[in-house]
Specification:
disordered N terminus; elongated; 46% strand; mainly beta; 10% helix; 367 residues; 3 helices; 26 strands
C-alpha cells in the first residue's frame, strides 16, 4: 500500500512539474509575441514585363513598376548593435509574396538586400568602416558568373507602410533610405526599391511565315554563355545618408566559368508563332562589362514537325528532333538598367524543294 501511495505522490509531482513547465512556456511565448512577420510591397525599375503601377498616394521614382517575382529577394535585418544577421527571404509563390522576415515591435532595423538568393550567389554584409548599420552597409559578392538566368538586383531604398493598399498610404520611395521601424503585429509592411546591377537581353522567337506553311517549330531550350570565361567579385556600398544610394565596384575576373546557362527549358517544346505580338519571350542577364557583352553566344534547341496533322499526331510528324542552332550575338549595350531586345527567326537558308536537307534543319537568324 505504501508503495502505491509513493507512486501516486511521484505521479502528482510529475504532473505538477509539467503544469509549471507549460506555464513557463506560455509566458515565454507571450514575451516573444511582439515579433511579427514583415510583408512585402516591392518595386523594380521598369524593364521587367509588368504593368505600370496605378496612381497611388505613395510616390514612385520615374520608371519604377510593381515587381511580381519570380526571383527570391533576400534582406539582412541589421541593427545599430553591429550584429550581422543571416539572410532572410521574400519568395513569390502562388501569386503572392511569402515572408521569412520577422521584426519586433518598437525595434529599429536597417534593411539591406539583393536578389536572386540562390546557392550560386554568395553574399556577406559588413559595416562601412567607422560607421554602424544606421549609416550604411557593404555587400560583398564573390564569384558572380558572367551570365545569369535571373535578374540580379540590390535593394536601393526602403519605405515603411502600414498596409499593402498603397491608396491609403503617404510617402515617397527614394534611394538611400534603409530604415524600418518594427510595429505591432499585423501592421508591418514595407516597400522595397530594387535596382538592376546586371545588363539584360530579351529574345523574341518567331518562325518565318513562308516556312511555317511547311513545318512547325517547337522550342525546347535556350542557353547563353560568353567567351569571357571568368567570374567576378562585386562590392556594393549602400549609404543611408543624404539619399546617396549606393556605389558599385567590380573586381578583376579570376575563376574560369565556361558553361552555358539555361534561360528557358520546356521538355515538350513550345510552338513558335509567326506573329510578333505572340513571339516567345526569353530573358537573359549578363555582367555589365564590355568583354562580356561583346562575346555572348546563344544556343537554341528545337524539334521540327511536318504539317501532316492527324488524330494520332496533332502536331504533325516529328521529322527532326533536338535541332541545335548557335548564334554569336552582336555586341550588346551594357550597364546597370540597360536592356537590348533581339528578334530571332527560325528559317532555312533556302527553300526550293522539299528534299532540301535545310528544310528539316533550319537556321536561326538574328534580325
Amino acid at each position: 500500500m505504501r508503495e502505491l501511495n509513493r507512486y501516486k505522490v511521484r505521479m502528482l509531482l510529475l504532473l505538477l512539474m509539467a503544469v509549471v513547465l507549460v506555464a513557463c512556456s506560455d509566458d515565454s511565448d507571450k514575451m516573444e509575441g511582439e515579433t511579427d512577420t514583415l510583408h512585402l510591397v516591392p518595386y523594380t525599375h521598369g524593364r521587367t514585363e509588368v504593368s505600370p503601377s496605378a496612381t497611388r498616394n505613395v510616390t514612385l521614382p520615374s520608371g519604377y513598376t510593381d515587381y511580381k517575382g519570380p526571383n527570391t529577394i533576400g534582406v539582412f535585418t541589421t541593427t545599430t548593435d553591429g550584429e550581422a544577421p543571416a539572410i532572410r527571404t521574400f519568395s513569390y509563390v502562388n501569386n503572392q509574396w511569402n515572408s521569412q522576415v520577422s521584426v519586433t515591435n518598437s525595434k529599429v532595423y536597417y534593411l539591406y538586400g539583393y536578389m536572386p538568393v540562390n546557392e550560386n550567389i554568395h553574399c556577406e554584409i559588413s559595416q562601412i568602416l567607422g560607421k554602424d548599420y544606421s549609416q550604411g552597409a557593404v555587400l560583398t559578392f564573390t564569384k558572380l558568373p558572367p551570365v545569369l538566368a535571373e535578374d540580379f538586383s540590390v535593394v536601393s531604398g526602403v519605405l515603411q507602410v502600414s498596409s499593402s493598399n498603397l491608396d491609403n498610404e503617404e510617402g515617397s520611395l527614394a534611394p538611400g533610405n534603409f530604415r524600418y521601424d518594427g510595429k505591432a503585429s499585423g501592421s508591418n509592411f514595407v516597400c522595397l526599391m530594387l535596382d538592376h546591377l546586371y545588363s539584360a537581353v530579351q529574345f523574341k522567337f518567331l518562325v518565318k511565315d513562308t516556312y511555317n506553311e511547311l513545318r512547325t517549330i517547337k522550342l525546347k531550350k535556350v542557353e547563353m554563355m560568353t567567351d569571357d570565361q571568368l567570374t567576378y567579385p562585386l562590392t556594393v556600398t549602400m549609404k543611408d545618408q543624404d539619399q546617396v544610394g549606393y556605389e558599385v565596384s567590380w573586381g578583376t575576373g579570376t575563376t574560369l566559368s565556361n558553361d552555358y546557362i539555361s534561360l528557358y527549358t520546356n521538355e515538350d517544346g513550345e510552338t513558335l508563332s509567326t506573329s510578333v505580338e505572340n513571339a516567345k519571350l526569353v530573358n537573359g542577364y549578363f555582367a555589365p562589362k564590355s568583354n562580356v557583352a561583346s562575346k555572348l553566344r546563344l544556343r537554341c534547341t528545337y524539334d521540327v514537325y511536318d504539317k501532316n496533322v492527324t488524330e494520332d499526331h496533332p502536331n504533325g510528324n516529328l521529322v527532326r528532333e533536338n535541332c541545335t542552332a548557335v548564334n554569336k550575338l552582336p555586341s550588346l549595350a551594357y550597364g546597370p538598367n540597360q536592356r537590348t531586345i533581339l528578334t530571332l527567326t527560325v528559317n532555312p537558308t533556302y527553300l526550293y524543294v522539299l528534299s532540301d536537307p535545310d528544310l528539316d534543319n533550319p537556321t536561326v537568324t538574328i534580325n
